[in-house]
Amino acid sequence: MQTITERFKIIDGTIADYNSLSHFHYRSSRPGPYEKIYAAKLDSETVGVIVYSLPSPSCELRNIATGNYFLGLDRRSQLAMLNKKVRTISRVIIEPRFRGLGLAVRLVRDTMPMLNFAMIEALAVMGRANPFFEKAGMKKYAAPMSAQCMRAKEALSLVGIEDAMLIDAQAAYAQLRNLTAGQSLFIERELKRFVQCYGKHCKAIDENSMRFVLSKLCDRPVYYLWLNPACRLLKQSQSQSKTCTR
What we know:
alpha+beta, Aminopeptidase, 7 strands
């Protein structure tokens, strides 16, 4: 007897498949211009979908991941090369009843080679790690932390607010209220300085401003890249990449 995971079939999909699941995604609006949709089906029911789109013209983390492979060209040539070699995963949606079964991994892993492009990329715009991309064979590149974020993070650490607390603004703010007068003066000065970097001003650090601070410290973009082994691809080093042809 087949298990439920063995019954999933991944086939060419349509915008109707996407529309049937779009309300389960945190960005429920229709994606921009897309090139390909694949659907995961359980019998005749759509239970998962992945959407591939054209790449954006500029992406700093793409430059880091590819060793500036697409730089040094005029804009027209750069766009032509991007469109020839790269496709972007713009949506992966799994119907909630079927999450935790590895279906997202299968959708990514099984469909990337079907496109026959040299590179497949994805960007976690919320800055949250998406482990299914890595499990599907993509490599993760995190944006380096800015100097102001590093300073704010270090200041919070000095008053006992470590990394594990950065996801809970309420707990972090409660910790601030238990500081000594000297610690409070120090951290308030540091956090006011931090929010000013984003054009904001506050008279005092309250829970809302703490939430803003933590959102900036936690929401770092994460970029994922897959190099198609069927192509004569870039052999990347830390600083450069070599010729990749489709």
